[in-house]
Amino acid sequence: MTTLATFLSTHASVIRVALTRVRGSSPRNAGTEMFVAQGGLFGTIGGGQLEHLAIERARAMLVQGDLNTTMDVPLGPEIGQCCGGRVELALARLRQADRHTALVRAQAAQDAQPSVYVMGAGHVGRALADLFQHLPVNCVLVDTRPEELALCRAGVDTKMSVIPEAEIATAPAGSAFVVLTHDHGLDFLLASAALERGDAVYVGMIGSATKRVKFRNWLRDHCDGQSIEDLNCPIGASGSRDKRPSVIAAFVVAEVMAELTSETVAAVPKGEKGAPRKGEQTDRTGRTA
Known about the structure:
- The structure is a single chain.
- This protein has helices at 4-10, 48-64, 96-111, 123-132, 146-149, 164-169, 184-197, 209-222, 245-261; strands spanning 15-23, 33-37, 40-43, 68-74, 86-93, 115-119, 138-143, 158-160, 176-179, 202-205, 231-232.
- It is an alpha/beta fold.
- A six-stranded parallel beta sheet has the order 8-7-6-9-10-11, sandwiched between helices.
- Helix 4 (123-132) crosses helix 9 (245-261).
- The model is unreliable at 264-289 (pLDDT under 50).
- Keywords: Plasmid.
- Residues 12-65 form the XdhC- CoxI domain.
- InterPro entries: MoCofactor_Util/Proc, NAD(P)-bd_dom_sf, Xanthine_DH_XdhC, XdhC_CoxI, XdhC_Rossmann_dom.
């Protein structure tokens, strides 16, 4: 996946387009930016006719040698959009110092992204890591088996660890953990470690309703007082019964991102988080994980 550093290094002349003010409904928030070159584009201010007009203006600036300009765009019938709001854009040619500032800002934004730990590099784990690559999270795929990690696609951040629970212990506060290893005992150990932290935004473990019950019994025997109420198991339980790894991964990613991007934790009754409704996802055992 192309980074801003790569984009800027391959384009000598670039215009930064920034949303400086948003009134009413808009496809993106104020502060959103994209970078426009004659032969490329990095980022998005929301697509549609708004973005088309901004790109057109930016490329005209590159041809004419203009340094900066502004745009005030109504998001209505005038431009073929129906958001109903209004946005102001600032367009400026990047100087060398501006490039450095943009890279520093981009790195800070990346560092501030939430972390997602996918514990297990089986079929579903690898599919999850592939999807998370394209989302605003810092995802790492952890496994004890180097041969499984070697099957990952280029660009996936992997970590071979003989003590995977140590990766959970040192993860940043507010992380998400998806547990789907090749071993039920290891799943229980890792899920317990994630729950014990108390600061995880999401803890999920692949499996069936039966596995959830077995894990509750395991906690009772091995972790006195630890609760299962914050565990999502089965994971992706609002999805279909389709057991193909890529389909399971899609529903799990949606579930994780819903937690990571919500401003407040959804009001889920204690003891029911992740519990399947009647007829839903009660038979995912995770053996393809």
